[in-house]
Amino acid sequence: MKLKQLLSELSFVENIILDTSFIHFAYENDVFDLINLEELCKEFKNLIIIKSMSKDFGIAGIRVGYGVMSEDKVSTLLENGYLWNTSGIGEYFLRLYARESFFAEYNELRKDYIHKTQTFFLALAQIEQIKVYPSLANFALIELLDGSLSEDFVAKMLIKYGIYMRTCRDKIGLNGEFVRVASRKFEENEIMIEAIKDCFKG
């Protein structure tokens, strides 16, 4: 694993923080098995894994997440009073998340969503006026190749088709016209594909 090699080479760093908020959308085999990096905290004591749960569970309003780290780092946090109280709704969700039956059902839905998302990205890649960059998240970076400005394209998609996309003008390192589009339900993805095709017709 390249990550383990990297962590080994960075053993001199006091704290390495790894954000895994999108990791449930990632996979390393054809059956979309879940990637679990939390065991690495036992081997690398300087590693801190954090995860927002709003991305894959759609619970942004609850503001729930968690961190995994060595026992020594947990003790240091507790000694300094770094406890963050959760709301009643947040606590309810965490108890639900801890149930084996809930997670098993979620994992099947997660795999189905990944399959539909990758199918969506492949369909987008067939549109000749855009370039779709590979993604293991639930959104794709798209480069506009027909000379359109990203702001104009985003505005047209919203006004004419009622579809919201995000321009990537504020992203450092991108040279060109880029937008970001998120995968949704299969039927909504189909509508989006047809709208993008129609948008380029004029």
From TrEMBL:
Keywords: Aminotransferase, Lyase, Transferase. It is an enzyme of class 2 (transferase). Residues 16-196 form the Aminotransferase class I/classII large domain. Its EC number is 2.6.1.-. PROSITE patterns: AA_TRANSFER_CLASS_1. Transmembrane segments: none annotated. Its cofactor is pyridoxal 5'-phosphate. One of its GO terms (molecular function) is lyase activity. Signal peptide: none annotated. Pfam families: Aminotran_1_2 (PF00155). It comes from the Bacteria. Belongs to the class-I pyridoxal-phosphate-dependent aminotransferase family. This is Aminotransferase. It comes from Campylobacter upsaliensis. The lineage of its organism: Bacteria, Pseudomonadati, Campylobacterota, Epsilonproteobacteria, Campylobacterales.
